[in-house]
Amino acid sequence: MKINRFGAVFQIAILLGSFTLLAQETTSQKQVSNYNYRDAFAPFFYTKNGTATRSASGQPGAEYWQNRADYKLTAVLSEKTNEITATDVITYTNNSTDAMSFLWLNLDQNLFREDSRGEAIVPVMGSRNGRQGQIFDGGHKIKSVKITKIDNKKINEVEAKYIISDTRMQLFLPEELKSKGGKVEFKIEFSYISPNEGSDRTGVLETKNGKIFTIAQWYPRMCVYDDIKGWNVNPYLGASEFYLEYGDFDISITAPSNHVVVCSGELTNPNEVFSAEELKKYNEAKVSENTVMIRSLEGVLAAKNNSTASKTWKFKLLNARDVSWASSAAFILDGARINLPSGKKSLALSVYPEESAGKEAWGRSTEYVKNSIENYSKRWFEYTYPVATNVAGNEGGMEYPGIVFCSWKSKGKRLWGVTDHEFGHNWFPMIVGSNERLFGWMDEGFNTFINTLSDIDFNNGEYKDEKEDMHESGASYTDPELEPVMTSPDNMKEAHIGDLCYSKPSAGLVILREQVLGPERFDLAFRTYIKRWAFKHPAPDDFFRTMENVGGEDLSWFWRGWFQNNWKFDQGVNAIKYVKNDPSKGVFITIENFEKLPMPVVLDIKFKSGKVDRVKLPVEIWQKNVEWTFKHNSTEEIESITLDPDHVFPDSNEENNIWTAAKGLVEKAIIADEYLGVYSNSRVPYKITVTEKNTFLNVDIPDYATFTVEPIGENMFESKRTGLKFKFKEDKSGFDLIVGEDRTIPFTKVK
Ligand SMILES: [Zn+2]
After folding, report:
1. 88 CA distance to ligand 1 centroid (A)?
2. Peptidase M1 membrane alanine aminopeptidase domain: from which residue to which, for each copy (predicted)?
3. Residues 640-644: contacts with CB within 8 Å, 24+ apart?
4. Which end of the chain is more exposed for a tag (fewer CB within 10 A), N or C?
């Protein structure tokens, strides 16, 4: 679906307000770190090992199975009553290792019944979901359910027993369906009245040349039976989308004769439904690089009020998880060829009313569709359907295999954006069939991420956005009010969905691509994920494991902080110390991680001469440290140090990101020279040598150990590793070696 950005922007505004206040209150105090590296890098991110069906490497296991649903659908549309009367013949194949005595189906139109659970949870303030206050007789009316075949054995159309509970139907089989390939065929006769605005995903729009019907979630569809939950029966409540089986579709739609009907599938009887002139143009479009008008406004006006009979449009769609369609007398229709990397072709089509026509608006739709599909095919995985149709409807934007519904009001950049987003969904979840009802981020988030690249690619950046400032959005993405990204959309506040399903997971993938793995390794891993799980059902672990196995990193810290938890991120620069207090000899820079999320470090060191050095440190510095000091080979005095100068990390507190010579702390270095020498005690059989190593004091005790010591007070040094302390005399003529709590051994300098 289309993102609702309003919520996100509003949250940024609120957060910035409170954030400034907070910063003002705390600037005078030393910031306390909430970072715990044991939590961030804890072992056992995965709660289960790989299985025979899902490999530990993230690919489908050797015994992976998936059930299948093939559909033969016939529908008749009534323009007057908005009613669809249809039959749904389903052939269900049980490839699982379990026999079945019942099946579960989705009856998603039941969301629009007055007594549905989804209607019950619409707040008084309203929602984009549900039926938008429309009073009508919504919901699937089931006329009959008949079993027609079991295991290729025709049976005498047995009436099947079933129970309907909200948006689900449990269908009982007259005999058990075998595991590993058992097949059952059954026929459902049903009808329903389309809502005008059905959860912003299906509807009826009045235009001056007739109604536009955008028809979806319209036929009883199989629930998924998988190796994770068995039957996936979460009801359709509105926010959470769909999880469906793959199969082939044979569709025929009967509509008034002056309608144009478009569908997920390829039109198989164009010469029965188009006029001779339309057919000629339709065939021209199939081989044209530029948009060809197939049914112009003149065609629409000529057919207006001229519907005496009906026509049946036939379509075919292979290997898809759903099918949707649109029908209207008001449709202008145009199209152009889509070129795919393998040399195959597809067809971009657009249908829209007179109100949406024109080069500023839907007149460019087909160009957008063509570019979007060609680009995603080149970057990630080749488009597999023979047609891609953009429909102007009253939805904000909604995706189905091979067809999308976008707002008839969208124009220019917004129309490009929504078209590209909805067609991006053809990769997630249409090709990669994840469970949208539970994991919105695996389709909306991944899609939003691929959209960020196509915006740059389209027409030399015609509609390119400014790069996201992660210091601004980072604070909003980690607002403590938010649920974790891994939450089901039905389990998050509606206002949070824009951030949690779309922007935050997308921003995470941008960070992973650009800052952690690099584009080459990321793209290979992401492409591998798509290829491995094309037309299959991946779960979150399958994605995480594939990115780690192909990308070659343990990314548990990243998944844990950004996806599984809502952890904040704040790095700060604390202090510097010049080597021997001399900027020409080098500098120690101390940085700190203040919040629970670790990230790699990027910082710019600007010197007084104007020269800038960029330093990059891997995330591993935070594996066992809250604070980290590193040496940089400076040759002159530093003017300033800036952490994350490009604003690519989600730093929720910018106040501590910059160190300046004017205000920042410069610590005094200990001058090591005066402590160096060889020390002895006549009753001890060895001498202790103190040297300098990398500006630190280095202690060598023969046959015992060599180690560095850190200053812990005036003339006082300690080695944490050995537990030894060294208390030097004021005049440096010797030291007391302190062992444990109370044992003191005096040493005197001998040279
Ligand atoms: Zn979407």
Report:
1. 27
2. 410-562
3. 640/605, 640/606, 641/573, 641/576, 641/589, 641/603, 641/604, 641/605, 641/606, 642/603, 642/604, 642/606, 643/571, 643/572, 643/573, 643/591, 643/601, 643/602, 643/603, 644/470, 644/471, 644/571, 644/602, 644/603
4. C
Tell me how far the alpha carbon of residue 444 lies from the centroid of ligand 1, in angstroms: 5
CA 502 / ligand 1 centre spacing (Å): 8
How many angstroms does the Cα of residue 3 sit away from the middle of ligand 1?
A: 6
Range of the domain at 376: 276-306+327-431
> How many angstroms separate the alpha carbon of residue 542 from the centre of ligand 1?
21
Residues 591 and 685 in one domain: no
pTM: 0.92
Tell me the CA–centroid distance for residue 169 and ligand 1, in Å. Answer: 27
CA of 399 to the centre of ligand 1 (A): 7
- Residues less than 5 Å from ion ligand 1, measured at CB: 1, 444
Q: Tell whether 467 is covered by a domain.
A: no
Structural domain includes residue 682: yes
CA of 304 to the centre of ligand 1 (A): 34
Whose tokens are 């109604």? That residue is: 211
Residue 631 sits at the vertex; the CA angle it makes with 630 and 634, to the nearest 5 degrees, is 140
Asked if the peptide bond before residue 235 counts as cis, ω within 30 degrees of 0, the response is no
CA of 114 to the centre of ligand 1 (A): 27
Sign of CA dihedral 383, 401, 437, 168: negative
Query: What per-residue confidence (pLDDT) applies to 7?
Result: 40
- Whichever domain contains 347, its CATH number is 3.30.2010.30
pLDDT in tens, 66-118: 999 999 999 999 999 999 999 999 999 999 999 999 999 999 999 999 999 99
| Structure tokens given for 678 | 């060889």
